[in-house]
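re: that chain from earlier
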Amino acid sequence: MGFTTERISNSDRAIDPSPVEKRAAYLAKLLALTHPGRDASPFVALFQVDSTANLVFQGIETLQNQAAARILELAIPSPRDENWRFTDLSKLLALDLAAAAVAGQLDERHQQLDEGSFVPAEAIAPYCLPGTSRLVFVDGVYAAHLSDLGSVADTITLGQGSSLTMTALESLAKLPDADEVFTTLNTASFQDVAVIRAQPNAVLAQPIHLLFVSIADRTLAHPRCWIRAETGSNITLIEDYVSLGEGSSFTNAVTEVVLGENTVVNHSRIQRENAQAVHIGKTAVIQARDSRYCNIAVQLGGGLSRHNLEVHHQGTQVQSNVYGLAIAAADQLMDTHSNIQYNEPHCQSNQLYKAIATDRGRSVFNGRINVPQKAQQTNATQLNRNLLLSHRARIDTKPQLEIVADNVKCTHGATVSQLEDNQVFYLQSRGIDRVSAQKLLIEAFALEILHKLPSEHLRQTLATSVMRLTEEVL
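^ sequence. v structure.
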């Protein structure tokens, strides 16, 4: 049985509204597509009827209704907003979107996903990673028949929204920058949650692969992840966004990560949706004392892709390593905004973000590190390196250090360059033709980030994608 859909059409808009009114109206229509309203909730299908589950259900319903009320006071950002001045959202505003599953039909959709009638296993086979446990969500909804939890389920809680507890609910939508417009839209509209909770002192032998699949044309989806590493645990996550079709879509994703004391979380985020997709993602992280967090974000797909990263230190002796790679080809726009907030002394962060812009592509980097007076003996480095392969491409970079503390060691910098002629000449002098020499230099530039990924299969796949995206300009 198919699903009825509502569509957003530009023809539905009022005649000659102001730009702010247009953006507010479009945001309200996005909300109307997926928020169930006061009388229904997408989580009806997920929770068993008992007192504890009912409390969680009621808490989620309240949370979503509060976020929905907030959305009606907001508008889609414009370039006049400082955090969006380099990012033109006209590709999003031009989309004619539909909700693939609405509240009253979600239970049926879960059943059809379980039966495999939506997506057969062979359809996602090219994206599966050997040696990982796998959770699959299709257009934001858990697909049990595509998931393979493996033995990791013995030491960690894995699952969908029904795995949420009251403790989890207390931190849901409470992490840094939770009131940002697209985060609020996700909170009001998410239809399922990827839940990962590492028990105290749990050490995972293999990564957890969170695969988010977009399948329908003109689909709006709000993937949500809630991740908590309890004291002494060590986990590796690969958050992966892909498209099975070539149609347009809007993925509005939010991931919340809470690190307990003396924990290690290695977190890779891969965005490789199709060229028609619009993707806006948020990663919010809180780190307790003696925790180690590593984030590796790779953006390859989508006509418009934005990743907002918030990392907040809430204890001493915290370390954050943040790496990124974006490839902006054709007329793609790849945007990364990061904020590392120091709140305690004796902490450290290292950030390296790299981008390649070709053809008419555009890359944006805005990285902020804030060190208040309390955060003495901070050690922070930030570097943005960019490779410009076309005179029509564009790179905007804005590294920022905001330092009040005086006993710190903080550095930042940015470079924008083309392929160096002397490097190309050196390789040619060793018998390598010019095009092959250029390819080697581009690949080496990207591999500095890709080699940090925890999966060899994923490293090779993404390296191939990088070369395919850049080879047309050589």
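The mean pLDDT is 88.
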